[in-house]
């Protein structure tokens, strides 16, 4: 009798094993891998017929490797995609809108509309096809050292005794006050990236690239003034020169207690939670001419591999792992990233994540459309390295601002020429 | 025919030559070919003739990077010559202590470059580094290692020295062990002191090793950028932006592949010229 | 009492100063791998962990199949090193002492290849490796690495030092080329073989570009690839974890260096340094 049972079990197992659909998924290692690993383990319970092999590719070389794979036709079924490069890959990705109704039971429109607008713009292409789902979504925000602010008696928005964001002047006063009260060498940490500079300028009313993707910094007298103010913040030891000159990790100064505020973002949560001897809290970016923040991170999509069975299975997994209430929640809980969906409550088991979601969600809603639009361009993705280097030279006192702006103008013209237009 | 090939010792070269042809020569030829294309590694390559080379003429950061590479050559290459030579002279004899010390000095070369360099970055950090902390405790002024062009260049040279010594020291030791002890004995009998022996016997006999170390050090500088990438990222500004790093950034952060290849071709020729020149200059001395 | 010689004082002062310089970052890395996150970023920095913790190591090896990576790395390093050493010593001899047409040209070509970085040729190299069917195959990490410019150039320069008279006299004694190589050149090359073995082993152990190109499967990861992957995106993975993993990869190399040295240097002493 027992033998018969074994025979039956084997018989039933055969189609299951042979019918298993094998998918490969490339991700960028680190926390991203952990998050996807957790989600895949859960997916296996729902869909035992789908087997997903997770391959983590070094983050710094991810795009090199992905492009080589596309070049040779060996692309994975599923992959995470870095924000600035996402537009370039769209034409290789499946249109997920064809599967939304079947998998999620809602219309593609409803699916897209439930995301923050800054996310929606990134996942839907010009023809209305959905090429990505959100995964590791980030927004810039401030992180404050709670003890330093307490000691200085300064409230911070929105969870530190103040509801409204600071104006720029107020923000500067706050930084000086907290710095003096705690007798620390600097006040504000900020990573050297063009994205931070873009945010600073935009908040104070200057567009690095305008809606037609024209470079305007050297034509706008106000831009020059704001950039000069920016450089002065280093001279007055409000910001940390080593961070913009030598690309020092800004977490070091904040966690080491040398600064009171980090201009970082939602992605810092996991790093800062690991620090047990200090307390940090997320806060609004200041509000001047505009109130805004910049989005970033990584998207997720399924490649057109030509194999219909695998394509379908890949699309189904992508929608599952990218939709609120499903795999996405598991991913978020593991990685402590914020959600890309409006009004999406995730039980992180840690109140700080609710604060991050609230702060960054508010900022995401406040952000005007042009901010994401302009940065969704090829020009911006290529202009970032020159901006980093030129501003680094200005902060180091090696170059005048005028000269840097002139150089950036040349770089811009060159990029436009190489791209054969403004796109 | 075969006999002639054996006689001429050509057959000894063949196995290596096959690997060289497939895995190095073909790719190099491909680089030359693709330097006439505009390509982002995603959309199909577009033939642009000499446009990449013309663009290079206007690209002042490319020429600046060559200047930086040359500056670094002047600071860094003598360091990476004499320090490993000194260590090799102290350690080439087969005693237990020198065997252990050799392993320790070789160790940094075995360390993953990014991890090793990041340690230096922490140590040298202006505000947070242990070096400046010790300086301050002792009452000296902290040094802005990575914040000013000249100190940054010095810091890069020192960290390169740190990482490269293992390789170059072992090259010297191999060369020293290749010298027959008869030479020393003859010199000893003539009553020469150690300094004289070194200067008049050892150093001239090391001629081929010297060329080896010098060329390796220059080639490494003109090929590798891991230390600079992790230590200064090319900064402050462009002051440590050497050509290989500039090429890498163009190729793999901006994905201007064709242009990066064109720069590689030109830079390859320039580096060869410099090497030939410096070897000649050394030999003429 | 033995007189202390000035030269020894100079030598040991130099060695000790240098040792501090060379060991400082390694010491700092190893020590930091035992620090907690609080301490790793704390100011003033500490030279010794106040509360040593294995937190970094636990994180580093969590979910990692270190034994598989080690096995892959060792296989690649050992096989590639054996192939490199044999072909390179032969090529060095042929290129330094050969008398064939094109020898000078090939010597120049070797110098040229010294200047070619793996990063620059990685795209065409990938195409070739793929055409040879070596993707997802450990041989794809070995074969492209057999010819190594630095090793070949080292061998050429070494072989140049071998006196021609020695080879000539063997020839007169009736030895053929093969015998000359194995009986005279190879024994004289022990220091070279030792150096090339150590170099080649180091290169393969630390190689990152080839694994990146060739491997698409976790079961084929090498230690360096696993290290690159663990670093992940900006933030998320703390530095004590990365340093713990680095420490795990550099300890074996030191042991291997010491073992190699013992093994080869004994051979040298047996063979004698004279010719």
Please describe the structure with a list of short key phrases separated by commas or semicolons:
heterotrimer; B: 285 residues; mainly alpha; MetI-like fold; C: 275 residues; 14 helices; 72% helix; globular; disordered C terminus
Topology overview:
The complex is a heterotrimer of chains A (about 425), B (about 280) and C (about 280).
Chain A: H1 2-18, E1 21-27, H2 30-46, E2 50-56, H3 62-72, E3 78-82, H4 86-89, H5 97-104, H6 108-113, H7 117-123, E4 133-145, H8 146-152, H9 168-182, E5 188-190, H10 194-203, H11 221-235, H12 241-245, H13 250-255, E6 261-265, H14 269-273, E7 280-283, E8 295-302, H15 308-321, H16 327-335, H17 351-366, H18 369-375, H19 378-395, H20 401-419
Parallel strand pairs in A: 1-2, 1-3, 5-6
Antiparallel strand pairs in A: 3-8, 4-6, 4-7, 4-8
Helix pairs in contact in A: 2-16, 5-15, 8-9, 19-20
Chain B: H1 2-7, H2 14-34, E1 37-38, E2 46-47, H3 51-58, H4 60-91, H5 96-110, H6 113-124, H7 130-137, H8 149-177, H9 181-189, H10 194-205, H11 207-223, H12 226-231, H13 243-252, H14 257-284
Antiparallel strand pairs in B: 1-2
Chain C: H1 6-32, H2 37-40, H3 55-61, H4 66-97, H5 103-114, H6 118-131, H7 139-142, H8 149-160, H9 164-172, H10 177-188, H11 190-206, H12 209-214, H13 223-231, H14 239-271
